[in-house]
Design a protein that fits this description.
about 350 residues; TIM Barrel; two-stranded antiparallel ribbon; 8-stranded parallel β-sheet; single chain; alpha/beta
Length: about 350
């Protein structure tokens, strides 16, 4: 395992982060029903990850029914007495109960959600507390003030954002700088060979500001795992078998070109397609740790090998070319003049 500084902090985290969205088998009201891991398997995977050197676990209050994922992690901490070995990240923002007060990132909601997460996780502090998505109904100054106060209270150590637009990140940084707040340490966002939109605005700003990137869905919901082939039905038991609409969205010439390129790269470096897709991200600027979401110990064992996988320049170039996307105006105009944007 390799370690990197977690964005604007002094904390060293593994370059792979164990995502806990699949932890605990939720009931039929959850979209994760039938595609998650039971508690015993979740415990086994956390043990396996820790033994392999992963010291970073990411969850959220909405993962599973009524904070199920956080409860599973809390019970694991209690059973293993290993809280100090883990950099723990969780999130708030989405709906946890009915009514006007059950979602959002108002000061009231953030403080209440943090207290609830601390209780479920069985800990007195959260290492990285993240706003799960920007809230256009709440002024960003209120968000920053609430988070900074939680730092002062010792309930969280650092804070980050997730699913934020670039303009909102810049606004947040300006407010934090003006008010003397800590500011966002990290951004958690969708990033993969299939989804590279962050490269337009987010990545260039993060390179300047020092914010670290935590990519989620690095295998694009399984598209980049090598399981799927154009024109064929999804394998039995796979997530795509249940989520047919997502499989239909992935059915594009660009995506199948990427899948083919990953398979070729995997042959060239003697690795599996998931390892290649994860390693490509680890070779990209500002990436702190790639969040891997697994359901079985076998999937985790495969993903772990990506942490140290080196991709030669020619392989990276082939993957970049296969996954190239139209950057649009004004980026293409600027690139046409200066060679980059």
């Amino acid at each position: 395992m390799q370690y990197r500084t977690m964005g604007r902090t002094g904390v060293q985290v593994s370059n792979l982060c164990l995502g806990a969205m699949t932890f605990g088998q939720p009931d039929e009201n959850s979209f994760m029903h039938g595609v998650a891991a039971d508690e015993d398997t979740s415990f086994a995977m956390m043990d396996q990850a820790l033994d392999a050197g992963i010291n970073f676990i990411d969850t959220a209050d909405v993962y599973g029914n009524d904070g199920l994922s956080e409860r599973v992690i809390g019970r694991w901490f209690a059973a293993r007495d290993n809280r100090r070995e883990v950099v723990l990240a969780t999130k708030c923002r989405f709906r946890m109960f009915p009514g006007k007060l059950g979602s959002g990132s108002s000061r009231r909601r953030i403080v209440e959600a943090c207290e609830a997460s601390l209780k479920r996780l069985g800990t007195d502090h959260i290492d990285l507390y993240q706003i799960h998505m920007q809230d256009i109904a709440t002024p960003e100054e209120e968000v920053q003030r609430a988070l900074d106060d939680l730092v002062s209270a010792g309930k969280i150590l650092y804070y980050g954002c997730s699913n934020y637009a670039a303009y909102r990140m810049v606004q947040s940084d300006w407010i934090a700088d003006r008010r003397g707040y800590a500011g966002f340490a990290t951004l958690q966002a969708q990033y993969s060979l299939a989804e590279r939109s962050l490269e337009r605005e987010h990545v260039p700003y993060m390179q300047q500001s020092g914010i670290g990137l935590l990519p989620w869905s690095p295998l694009a919901g399984g598209l980049l795992s090598g399981k799927y082939r154009k024109g064929e039905t999804a394998p039995a038991g796979s997530r795509m078998e249940k989520w047919q609409s997502r499989m239909e969205r992935f059915d594009s010439p660009r995506n199948w070109r990427i899948v083919d390129a990953i398979r070729e790269a995997a042959k060239a470096v003697d690795a599996t397609p998931p390892q290649v897709a994860l390693a490509w991200l680890l070779h990209k600027p500002v990436v702190t740790s790639v969040i891997i979401g697994v359901r079985t110990p076998a999937q985790l064992e495969d993903n772990l090998k990506a942490a140290a996988l080196e991709l030669p320049d020619d392989v990276m170039a082939q993957l970049d070319e296969a996954s190239a996307f139209p950057v649009g105006y004004p980026y293409d105009f600027i690139q046409g003049v200066d060679g980059r944007w």
